Structures are given as structure tokens and as C-alpha cells.
Amino acid sequence: MIRRYSANPRKLLNKIPKQPLSSSPKQHSEQEDTLITSLLQKCPNMTTLRQIHAHFLKCPSPSSHYALSKILAFAALSPSGDIAYARRVFDQIPHPNIFTWNSLIRGCSLIQTPTKEPISIYKHLVNSCFPSPNTFTIAFVLKACSIVMAFFEGRQIHSHACKYGLDSSPFVQTGLLSFYAKCEEISMAKLVFDEITDRNLIVWSAMISGYARIGMVNEALGMFREMQEVGISPDEVTMVSVISACAKVGALDLGKWVHAFIDRKGIRIDMELSTALIDMYAKCGLIEKAREVFDEMEVRDTMAWSSMVVGLAIHGLVKDALELFSRMLQMKVKPNHVTFIGILSACAHSGLVSEGRRLWSTMRELGIEPMMEHYGCIVDLLCRTGHFEEAYTFVNNMPIFPNSIIWRTLLVGCKNSRSHDKAEIIAKHLLELEPLNAENYVLLSNVYASGSQWEKVSGMRKKMKDNEVKVVPGLSSIEIDGYVHEFAVGDESHPEMKEIRKILRDISERVQRTGHQPWTLSVLHDVDQEEKENALCEHSERLAIAFGMLKTKAPVVIRVVKNLRACVDCHEVTKIISKLYGREIIVRDRVRFHRFVEGTCSCNDFW
Predict the structure, then answer these.
(1) Helix (H) / strand (E) containing 220
(2) DSSP state of 23
(3) Is pLDDT above 60 for 563?
(4) How far apart are CA 15 and CA 381, in angstroms?
(5) Strand 585-588 to strand 558-562: parallel, antiparallel, or no bridges (unpaired)?
(6) Sign of the alpha-carbon dihedral angle for 527, 528, 533, 534
């Protein structure tokens, strides 16, 4: 139970003695230490803390150092604290002890907008030569590194832990594991994990979370099962990590099993876990179940509302997303940046220009400063709806410098609107930011091809070759019988590839008979037309779809997750497959969901 104090500051201060409590300096010091601890335990806010601080400044004693360190800790770590005040108190302490250093490092890690300041403070501590860092210091600064993804600095701190002989501390080992896991250095995290002999729930959860972050769902779930085998019972935090792993790769069956496990074991479904379940069901293509979890929540915070709005948006259920957003405002729940990214992207994917403009104004009225993603949504909306010139002006008037995604979106709009005069300007910005991104060269080639500028198309291929630009491989995954199978173009490692190719040949022959003409412009290789068509036939999502057709029968839905946007040809072919074979296919690409049924897609070819 949290006890709230409403103590009168004067009454608290009256307890401070005006004269020594004991004739013995040692006893007096101990009594003052006890008193300052007692006062700070009852301190309700910064106003009272300032008065306590003022007293100790006016009446210095041998215990003033102790008092200042406790005052700093309150200001740095209390929910009602003030980190700027804590910094000023720190500067008043001539020789801060390690407790004081640790309090400041930890406090600076807890601020709303994290920075590298805790790391700078740690460097200052090390350079001061005294005192030496302890296990708490290392753990706190590692946590700070993980928050801002400071991998280089974290590695240095790992070496410091070894230098000071602190690397065998369970507290430090847990900090190292969490740091490497959050920085997605999973091999290093596993090395630390293997060195920990006494693995508690926090350690297991951190390792599972690390696998989940990079989508290694099979490893995450294997670790989850191993944890139970050694007698460690999972809690809500562990389950959030497992659910997140399922969401990342679209493992619906595993996600359902985990949800059933939570119910069976009586694990408390708190707000964070409920939100994770909403996100998982939405990202696994079962938006109806996501809405069911959302509707069952008794209390919903901004993240819960935002997850549901985003889920509806990526499924193309724009009307539902807008209605839920309106209800959110009616319930006096303030939207955040994530909410507006979801709702603005929904407008972009449905061409709702006036609605998008209204929501942009609403966001500004609510005091939410637009981020790069919000600007990107508006540019996307304007480009998709034929307002290229307005989008171009909007980008040039942005208060922040556009990133590569915004320039790429503008380039797509340039192609669609046939505004080739601006293509070179946009391309210059894009290639300056990302000279080695193959997607940029593909887009530029398509722009030139749409204007029959074949020499420039060849020039793009040459430039790509000269710069040794590597194409980012398309990866697609599909879950079959609780195991996630991943496919990539040219990867022959799957044990059933021979059977998969038979399905692909059958698909190719039947699709050709419908009169479909392959869209080969997106294949940037100096090869003949036949080879280009073959390359398209083995795009990763087609391999995954073929495997789904091999292993399942209708009416089982084939669910595929891809790391890139669906290409034009694969999108058209998947529509044809859904009609020819009578299969429902759901593909989650980098941007949104596509539900293919009887030759049509839920995106209405507007993606």
C-alpha cells in the first residue's frame, strides 16, 4: 500500500533540533542521520524538500554531507522530484560518495526524454579517481546505455566492470544481459546469459525479450519452455515479451496458445499485457480478436487506445479507426504521437484528404509537436491523392530536414503524377542521404522507365554496380504447426524446397493462362526478360505462399509476413492465386495488411 503524506512542512521542520541531541559527536551524528532519513520518508513534495535543504545549509553539522546526499536522492529519484535541483545539490557536495554519484546517474536515466548525460556523469566519476564505481554504478549506467542504445559506450562499461572485478555480480550480469538484448546484440546477450549460474525470472525474461526484439520467435519460445522446465514461473513481464515475439513474426497460432497459457496459469492480465495482446492479434491478422481484448479491458490508457487505433488502421478499417479515435477524445484520453501516426496513415491509405488535414490541425491544437513520421503521413496522403505539387511545397516548407522516407514517398508521387521535372531534384536529396540503398535506385529506374528514359534506366543500373549497392533481401515468414518458416530469394536451405518449387511451377503456369503480364521493371539486373520473370516468381512471399499451400488446405487461411513492401507484380499475382485456388491469403508487408479473397485485395489496390 502506498501511503500519501500531507504533512505540514513547518511541523516536519519543527522536529529538527535547534541544539545538539547528544554531547557525543558520534551519537549526535547518528541521531541526525536517523532524523534526516525520517524526514525524507515523510517528505511529500519538492516544496518541503527545499525547506529541509535550507535548514541544513543554515545549520551545517558533521552530518551535512549525509543530509545532502539524501536530499539529492529524493530530488533525483522521487516521482515528485526535480532532476535539475538534484544536479545543483550535487555541485554543492565537495566530495560526493558513491551513493550520491549513483543517485544522480540513475535519476538522469529516469527523465522523460533520455540523453547520454548519465554516461557523461559516469565518465566524470571514473576520471575523478575516487570513489570507485560499485555494482550499482555499473548496473545503473548500463541501463542508461540500453535506453539510448549507446552500444559503444556500453561495451566500454562492460570492460570497466571486468577491470573493477564487478563482472561476476548478479546485479551487473543482469544489467549486461539487458543491455545487449535491448541493443539487439543477441549473441553477446546469450554469452552473458550462459555465464549466469543462478538465473532468476528477470534474467530469463531479459533473454526472451532479446530474442523477441529481433523476431527470433522460435528461440524466444524455446527459451520460454526451458524456463518452465527449470521451475521458473513466468509473470506478466515475461508474457509481454513472448507475446511481442509472436506479434513481430505474425505467429498467430503460437500467440493464441500463449494467450490460453496465460488464462490457464492464472497470470494477471494487467494493462500492459492486454495492450500486448491487442498488438499481437492485430499484427497477426486477427483484428476481430484484438477488438475483443480491447473491449474487455476495464481501464484503458493511451497506449491501449493507440494500439487499437493503429491496428484498425493497418487493416484498412479506416471508418472504425476514425470512430474509435473520436470515442477516445470523448473519453478524455489524450492521444499521443503513436495515435496520430496510426490515424493519419489510415487517412493516407484511404485517400481521405480533408479528414487528414482536420486531424493534422487537431494534433497541433492538442499541443503535440509533429515528428518526422507525421510529416511523412501527410506527404504520403497528398501524393496518393494526386496533390503532388502541394506535397512538394509541404516538404520544402518543413521545419525539420526531411528524411529519406519522405523524399522516397515524394519520388513515388513524382512518378505517379508524371512530374518528371522534379525527379532529379528529389533524387539528389535521396541519394545524398542514402547512396547505398537499393530501393532508391529501383524507384528512380521506375520513374525513368515510366517516362521512357531508357538510357537513364541503364545509367541507374551502372551506378548501382559501380557503388556496389546491395539489394536488401526480401524475407517472408509463415507459421506452420507452431514453427515459423522463413524464406528468401535464392535460399535453398528449406528441406521441402523441391516440393515448394513444384507448387510454384503450377502457380506460374495457371497464372500465365489468365493472361497476366509480369511487371519486370522492378528487377534491376542486366538479364533477359525470361530471367526477370523467373526472379519475380521466386520472390519471398511467393515461396511462403507456396509452402502454405503445400502444408494446408482450404479453408485454412494462409498468413504471410514480409519485411518489405509488396511489389506490384506479387500483389497482382496473389490476387489471382486467391481466385484460382480458392484460398484466403493475408499478407502483412512493411506498411499494412493485404487480405486477398476471390481475386480482390482489401487495400483496393491503393497501397
Answers:
(1) helix 217-229
(2) S
(3) yes
(4) 64
(5) parallel
(6) negative
Is 349's pLDDT higher than 80? yes
Upper half-sphere CA count for residue 477 (Cβ side, 13 Å): 21
Determine the Cα–Cα distance for residues 322 and 316; give it in Å rounded to an integer: 11
**Residue 546 confidence (pLDDT):** 96
Residue pair 588/561 in contact (Cβ under 8 Å)? The answer is yes
> CA dihedral in degrees (556, 558, 559, 563; nearest 10)?
170
The reported pLDDT for the residue numbered 37 is 77
Q: Any idea of the CA torsion for 531, 534, 539, 543, to the nearest 10 degrees?
A: -150
* DSSP-based helix, strand, coil % in the chain, nearest 5: 65, 5, 30
Whole-number Å distance between alpha carbons of 75 and 86: 5
Q: Which amino acid appears at position 247 of this protein?
A: A
**What H or E segment, with its residue span, contains residue 223?**
helix 217-229
Pairwise CA distance, residues 573 & 517, whole Å:
10
Angstrom distances, CA of residue 152 to CA of 110, 119, 325: 21, 11, 41
Question: Pick the residue with more confidence: 531 or 573?
Answer: 573
DSSP string, 275-325: HHHHHHHHHTT-HHHHHHHHHH-SS--HHHHHHHHHHHHHTT-HHHHHHHH
**What is the C-alpha to C-alpha distance for residues 252 and 556, in angstroms, rounded to an integer?**
13
Question: What's the pLDDT tens digit per position in 405-464?
Answer: 999 999 988 888 777 788 889 989 999 999 988 888 888 888 888 778 888 888 888 888
- Terminal-residue alpha carbon distance, the chain: 51
559 forms bridges with which residues in the sheet?
A: 586
Cα–Cα distance, 404 to 325 (Å, whole number): 29
Give me 479's grid cell. Answer: 507459421
Distance CA 176, CA 189 (A): 7
* Nearest by Cα to 543 from 595, 499, 591: 499
582: helix, coil or strand? Answer: coil
pTM of the full predicted structure?
0.77
SS3 of 3, please?
coil
Which pLDDT tens digit goes with each residue over 593-605?
999 999 999 888 8
287 band by pLDDT with thresholds 50, 70 and 90: very high
> How deeply is 130 buried, as exposed, middle or buried, from its count of CB atoms within 10 A (0-12, 13-18, 19+)?
exposed
Q: Which helix (H) or strand (E) holds 136?
A: helix 135-147
CA distance 14 to 17: 7
For CA atoms 560, 563, 566, 569, the dihedral sign is: negative
List C-alpha distances in Å: 320 to 228, 280, 327, 333, 461.
40, 19, 10, 17, 44
502-525 confidence digits (pLDDT tens): 999 999 999 999 998 877 555 544
